Structure formats: C-alpha cells, structure tokens
Amino acid sequence: MSFVLHGIGVASGIAIGRAQLISHATLEVAHYRIAAARIPEEVARFVAAVKGVQKELEGLHTSMTRGDAPAEFGAFLDVHWLILNDPTLAEVPKEIIASQHCNAEWALTQQMNVLIEQFDQIEDAYLRERKADVVQVVERVLKLLLGKPGEVRPVNPEQKTILVAYDLSPADVIQLKRHHFAGFLTDLGGITSHTAIVARSLGIPSVVALHDARNLIRENETLIVDGGNHLVIVNPDRAVLQEYRLRQHELELEKQKLKRLKFTPATTLDGQHVELHANIELPQDLEEVLDNGATGIGLFRSEFLFLNRQGLPSEEEQFEAYRAVAEGMAGLPVVIRSFDLGADKHKDGLGGLTRMAQNPALGLRAVRFCLAEPRLFQTQLRAILRASHYGKVKILLPMLCNAQEMEQSLVAIEQAKDSLREQNLPFDPEVEVGGMIEVPAAVMAMSMFTRRLDFLSIGTNDLIQYTLAVDRADDAVSHLYDPLHPAIIKLLAQAIRGAHKAGVPISVCGEMAGDLAFTRLLLGLGLRGFSMHPSHLLTVKQRVLTANVPTLEELVNRLLKTDDSLRIQVLMEKINAG
Ligand code: PEP
Ligand code: MG
Questions:
Q1: Which own/partner pairs from 104-108 qualify as long-range (CB within 8 Å, at least 24 positions apart)?
Q2: Of 291, 350, 395, 404, which residue is least crowded by CB atoms under 10 Å?
Q3: How far is 471 from 481, CA to CA, in rounded Å?
Q4: What radius of gyration, in Å, describes the C-alpha atoms of the chain?
Q5: Looking at the CA of 508, which ligand is closest?
C-alpha cells in the first residue's frame, strides 16, 4: 500500500531507495566474530552486564520508594525487571554467542529483533506496545556492554538504501559520513538540532520529525524522500516513481549548472563584496568545501572530533586535524571553534561533567564547559595555535555570555602561547580570537565583546532558541521556532550595527546563513559574511549575485519598524522578489 508521511525536511533533494530500519540500540552495536576459546569469556561479559542492569534497576527502585515518585514508576521498573530476567533475554543470547561465535552485543540485538517481531504479531494493542520496554531494557544492557561504539552501514551496498530510525544523536549521524546512504528519516528531531545540521552536512536528502515512520515503514520497502517538500512516499506506484526520477534528474542538472559559479566572486549587482565561507565538522569535509568554491572555513565544529571514540583526542591528534584543514585551505581563513560540548552533544568518559543536567541547554555547555575543564581546553588551544603556523587559523569561543568568560578564555589562550614558547614550538602570535553571539545577552551588551575581540560570528540557531525559549531539537515546539519573529530581526540588526560601529567584522554561521529565504534579508541588514554548509554555497551565491543592496536596505528598514507578522510576511515577499 502506498502512503505519504509528513515531517521536517532538513536536507533538500530527492532520494529513492529501499528502507533499512535501525533501532537506536543496533546503531551502536559492533558486529564481530569471536574465537571458540573466547566464548566463555564473552558469555561472562554478557552475564556481568545483565547483573549490572539488575543492580541499576534495584537502585532506581530504592530511590523511588524513598522519594515521592508516582506508583506507576515502580510498576514500570517491575516490568523492566521481569523482561530482563526472562530467559528469552537473559539466557538465549548466551546460546547465540556459543552457537554463532558472535559478540555479546550482536547476540543480544539479534534476540531483541526476534522478540520485537513476536510483539508485532500480538493483537492486543497494550501488549504490543510493551515492545518499547524490551528495546529500553536491551539498551540498558548494551550501554554496559559497549566498550567501543559500532557503526551502521548499508546492509546491501549494491542498492540505494534509506536509513529509517526512531532517533539519531549527532554522534550517530557523524558516523554515517563514512558510509553511503541515499537518505535518512527519523521520528524525532527539530530543524536546527545538531542532528539535523550534521544530516545536512552529509549532503543527503533527509526528513526528521516523522513521528511514526519507524513503526509504519517495513524493511526493504521502496521509499521516496523529498527533503524540499518535507515528505516521504512509502511504496510509490509506478507513475509517481517515474515522476520523481525525472525531478531527481532535473535537480542533478541544476546542480551541475551551478558549478559554473564556483570561481565567480560573490558580488551584488551594486558591487558589494560578500564572503561566503563553509561550516565543517571533520577534516574530511574539506573536499566538498573546495568543490563549492568557499573562500574560507567560517566554523569548524571541533567538538565532533571528541565524539564516537574512546578517550579524548590527544594534542597531537587534534593538531594533525587542524593542520590538515589549515593547509588544505592554503592561506584562506579557517575559524576553529573551541569545543562546544554539552546540551545535545555529549561525550562519555569526562567524569561527572557531562552528566545530564535538568536543563542541559542552559547548563555547562560550550565556553562554560571549556573553562570548567582547563586541561582539556589547554590541550585544544595548544593544538589550534600550533596549527596556526600552517595557515590563517582563527580561534572562536562559543556561546559567550559575559565578560569574565571572555577574559578567562583570553588568559587561557595566552597561557597556551607561553607554554608553546617555552618549548620553542611555532605558532602565529597574531592569531585572531573571536566570539559567538548566540545568547540575547551578548547582543544587548555587544560593546563588552567588540572592545576585546577581533571578530564576531552570530550563531542564529542558538540565538533563536534562547531568545524565543524554544528548544531547537524538540519538534513539538518547532512551529514556534521562527527566524522572522520581530525580536530576532531586531536582534540581528542590533548585532550587525553594533559590530560595524566598532569596526569589528561580523558574520552569521547559523543555519539562517545557508537558507535562501534569508539571504537578502541578511544582506539588507548589512551582513557581508556568511558561513554555511558547503552544499548551500553556490545557491546562496546565485542569490547574492542578483541582489541590489540599496533596494534591500530600504525594504529592511521598513521591516524593522513593524512587529506585525502579516506585514513582515508581505515585506519579506518583496525582499525576496526578483
Ligand atoms: C548556532 O548556534 O547557530 C551555531 C552555529 O552553533 P551550533 O549550531 O553548533 O550550536
Ligand atoms: Mg550554537
């Protein structure tokens, strides 16, 4: 049966392929065979993990009976206890390890899939729903078992595959960079969540916030992912499939045509030059950056070097990564942001610091986290500074909110420079330091930052989240995430004007910079520096080439005088016309 699902398209384009379903648990599971002699050891590892989860559940039970938790929480834990201790989960995986010589994680997920299928056959809706409990129990055991996160890859590399998941963390998605999927779909996710941003950087059509796709889509079904129109067609009929193949072909031709603009300078009709830079997560993104003619890296989200690995990257490893990017850009600017961990980007193994806070987006993240972990911060600063000897490297501090954070960071940078001098290690002593403007407080008190910093970069993803109090990763409130809210337009105008007045360069590196709907608005607000995912660069350039700044400024000034959403809409249509 053919049907359509609607969600939020986070990367445009059309993908046609077969569904590969994945549960979060299986995503992180390594699959490997073990020697016969190691079977008892592997079984013991599995038994220890089950015992560990028993202890966790007991601990939770005790803390709940002591507190005033609702009675159903206890019942919920009892269900998990029963599932965990049922022979189908506690015993069968041991037999699978022994008979198939596979690792404990793999054996457990195989058995989980068998149980899920059995649950799917149950008529009673309540009992059928219990399969979610099975998955949660398995995930608990897997967490204890996992030493090294595994990878997900297409089951059949010969065919185009579309990954269908309930949810993917940014760390999961970054793993997908290594394996070619034609597209991916998730039930959860917001448009500027880090998961969505990394998805965009994969350059494959993706739709998130589909709610029930993981349950409604069956393994190997044919899917059409239409990222631009925010929809997925499951089991399309022949005519629809043909129509989409045609559109896919047309899009490919358009993409090829745009390539001609690669070396064209981004200059508006009235002669204003605009810098179009790229955002990257890993050094391997460089190829796409150069392919799309970026004139610099405006944001290297360095924290992705910290994810999906055991332990932390050493100074040497970080230095090699930063140097590769600096050298690859051959003298063009490379802005490396100090790690922005916390909130939705967790790193296990950093002691208690990455524990889940009640409001992680308002907790110990970004520069706060860097300052709370001085050794980690020093290691990174030394690595960035050493790379500055090999190109035009700049340091960017994320989520600055007050002067102390900036001053302490500047002291930390000087310390790192001193330690390099002592060791006679070369670096650029003039390395520029900039700050991200991502919280409304930073816009309100811009002079605090323009006085001391060399450049600024507006992170609109967080600026919108913090101004409108809308969790950027929560699709339940994504309709409230509005870049055209009058408060946002006014804040952007204030930030850009403040920086210009102080003579400090300012750019935007949030998702607004790569969204064609906002290119002309930002130009009219006075912005001349954009940094975006490289796949958006040429379309944004095309938009810049046909823009006339004086006309836009006049319309934007009118926009700044209104707070009526209908009027804003009408003016935006005029701004984007032509
Ligand atoms: C932003 O917040 O706009 C930004 C560029 O940073 P990130 O998306 O990594 O939080
Ligand atoms: Mg941010």
A1: 104/42, 104/43, 104/45, 104/46, 104/49, 104/145, 105/29, 105/30, 105/31, 105/142, 105/145, 105/146, 105/150, 106/29, 106/30, 106/31, 106/32, 107/46, 108/46, 108/138, 108/141, 108/142, 108/145
A2: 404
A3: 8
A4: 25
A5: 1
Output the tens digit of pLDDT for each of the chain's 578 residues. 899 999 999 888 999 999 998 766 555 577 788 889 999 999 999 999 999 888 878 877 776 565 545 455 567 778 888 999 999 999 999 999 999 999 999 899 899 989 988 888 887 766 776 776 788 788 788 878 875 444 567 777 788 999 998 877 666 676 677 678 899 899 887 777 777 777 777 778 999 999 889 889 988 999 999 999 999 999 999 999 999 999 999 999 998 999 999 999 999 999 999 999 999 999 999 999 999 999 999 999 999 898 766 678 899 999 999 999 999 999 999 999 999 987 766 655 454 444 446 788 898 889 999 999 999 999 999 999 999 999 999 999 999 999 999 999 999 999 999 999 999 999 999 999 999 999 999 999 999 999 999 999 999 999 999 999 999 988 889 889 999 999 999 999 999 999 999 999 999 999 999 999 999 999 999 999 999 999 999 999 999 999 999 999 999 999 999 999 999 999 999 999 96
Nearest to 195 by CA among 216, 215, 176: 176
The one catalytic residue in 194, 230, 277, 533 is 194
Q: Compute CA distances 200 → 10, 193, 205, 266, 381, whole Å.
A: 6, 11, 8, 23, 28
Whether 194 is catalytic is yes
Please report, for the chain, the start and end positions of each structural domain, with discontinuous segments joined by +: 3-22+152-239, 25-145, 258-575
Evaluate whether 69 touches 124 at the Cβ level (below 8 Å). Answer: no
CA distance 530 to 148: 37
pTM confidence score: 0.75
Which of 337, 340, 400, 536, when mutated, tests ligand 1's pocket best, judged by the most ligand atoms within 8 Å of its CB? 340
What is the C-alpha separation between 272 and 77, in angstroms, rounded? 63
Name the catalytic one among 277, 509, 533, 536: 509
Local structure of residue 357 (DSSP, 8 states): P
**Ligand 2 centroid to 438 CA: how many Å?**
6
Q: Domain 25-145, what architecture?
A: Orthogonal Bundle (1.10)
Q: Is 401 a catalytic residue?
A: no
Question: What tokens appear for 492 in the block?
Answer: 């952007």
Q: Does residue 515's CB lie within 6 angstroms of at least one atom of ligand 1?
A: no
Alpha carbons 304 and 281: distance in angstroms, whole number:
6
Instruction: Compute the distance from residue 458 Cα to the ligand 2 centre, in Å.
Output: 9
3-22+152-239 matches 258-575 in fold: no
State whether the beta carbon of 417 lies less than 6 angstroms from ligand 1: no
> What are 76's strand-pairing partners?
none
Provide the CATH topology of domain 258-575.
TIM Barrel (3.20.20)
Residue 94, SS3 per DSSP: helix
CA of 472 to the centre of ligand 2 (A): 10
Hey, what CATH class is 3-22+152-239 in? alpha beta
Taking the C-alpha atoms of residue 185 and residue 224, their distance in angstroms, rounded to an integer, is: 11
User: For every residue of 5-22, which 3-state class applies, written as one string?
Assistant: EECEEEECCEEEEEEEEE
The closest residue, in CA terms, to atom 1 on ligand 1 is 459
